[in-house]
Amino acid sequence: MSDLELIIQRLGLRGHRVTGSRRRVLDALLAAPAHFTVDDVLQRADGVGRATVFRTMKLLQDLNVVCRVMMEDGSRHYRISARGHHHHLVCRSCGRVEDFAICDVSALVQELSSSTEYEIEGHWLEVYGRCQSCRTTQPLATAGSESNGS
Amino acid sequence: MSDLELIIQRLGLRGHRVTGSRRRVLDALLAAPAHFTVDDVLQRADGVGRATVFRTMKLLQDLNVVCRVMMEDGSRHYRISARGHHHHLVCRSCGRVEDFAICDVSALVQELSSSTEYEIEGHWLEVYGRCQSCRTTQPLATAGSESNGS
DNA sequence: TCCGACATGAGACTAAGTATCAGTTAGAAT
DNA sequence: ATTCTAACTGATACTTAGTCTCATGTCGGA
């Protein structure tokens, strides 16, 4: 079963209709590069209204079909969702995004729980760096403002 | 030396002027609760123009006087910066923010570096949960959409 | 084939942030 | 103290991202 069929099935199971506009958005997503903005989808899904694209993206997020990637500047990108819990490794230079599932925060969560009395429910981790191809083609990037990075 | 004086000194050292508007913004920041939005500052720093508040906040970020807290919905909050590398623990219910410095990602960074050929330069980690007082006063929160949390 | 709930597009609206520009001012030089 | 100018300012127009509303369209069950 193709990705498209899987997603359509998931829509149906949740009682959502599979309409022309939704298909066009899905086609746009699946044809898009690994990560994209809502605006990219808007341009690719020709004829589909602005509001509908936003609505559909939100729906697909709820269905875990796509997930959000937070860029360092606060802008939102999306990508077809990997299964389950994962994080993103974002290239600061070209914007490429990799998934990774290594995520050992259990010790951290335990320590925070006991020291702060918070009930920890989730976390968001994005790692930023420069991918190999950017490092070889642009050895010296123009330095941006220093992030919260370690 | 007070916080205010320290910040003013830092401004001067970098060749920035200490103007009335900047003072008013700083007063607003220092009087604000531990975390706040640009809009909060706008309202407190009466008479200071919109653009100036945004400009000043950006400047203060560059000077590491304030730091950004990314809320789960993508909105930006700020807080007076703690020294050095740290992360935030955000209460989903009341929005309260705690700093923490425990941050052992070196193993993760090493693993990612070797498996992806990225040069890791930084990361962003925000932890979300519910603080003790929210848990006791509102035992059952209305459930929001499920986050990327583990 | 009728029907109602779901979905849609257009466009008005909001919020957050940026750009422009003429006027003001801090603070160094005189 | 006065002058000078780059830095700064507020007003306002603009941009961008996203939401709301509402009249219209359509899917698919009865």
Secondary-structure map with pairings?
The structure is a homodimer of 150-residue chains.
Chain A (H helix, E strand, L loop, with lengths): L2 H11 L6 H12 L6 H7 L5 H13 L3 E5 L5 E5 L6 E5 L5 E4 L5 H11 L2 E12 L1 H6 L13
Parallel strand pairs in A: 3-5
Antiparallel strand pairs in A: 1-2, 3-4
Chain A binds a DNA duplex (30 and 30 nucleotides) through helix 2 and helix 4.
Strand content of chain A: 15-25%
- Give helix and strand order of chain A, one letter per element, not per position: HHHHEEEEHEH
- Order of strands in the sheet with most strands of chain A: 4-3-5
Q: Unreliable runs of chain A, pLDDT <50, ≥5 residues?
A: 141-150
Evaluate the radius of gyration of chain A: 18 Å
CATH architecture of the largest domain in chain A, please?
Orthogonal Bundle
CATH class group of the largest domain in chain A: Mainly Alpha
Straight-line distance between termini of chain A: 43 Å
CATH topology (fold) name of the largest domain in chain A = Arc Repressor Mutant, subunit A
Account of the protein in words:
Two copies of one chain form a homodimer. Chain A has a three-stranded mixed sheet with strand order 4-3-5. A two-stranded antiparallel ribbon of chain A has the order 1-2. Chain A is built from six helices and five strands. Chain A is globular and about 50 Å long. Helices cover 40% and strands 21% of the residues of chain A. The longest helix of chain A has 13 residues, at 50-62. Chain A folds into two domains: 1-81, Arc Repressor Mutant, subunit A (Orthogonal Bundle); 84-141, Ferric-uptake regulator, C-terminal dimerisarion domain (Dna Ligase, domain 1, 2-Layer Sandwich), CATH 3.30.1490.190. Chain A is an alpha+beta fold. The interface between A and B is large, with 50 and 50 residues. The first copy, chain A, binds a DNA duplex (30 and 30 nucleotides) through residues 15-22, 37-39, 47-52, 54-55, 75-76.
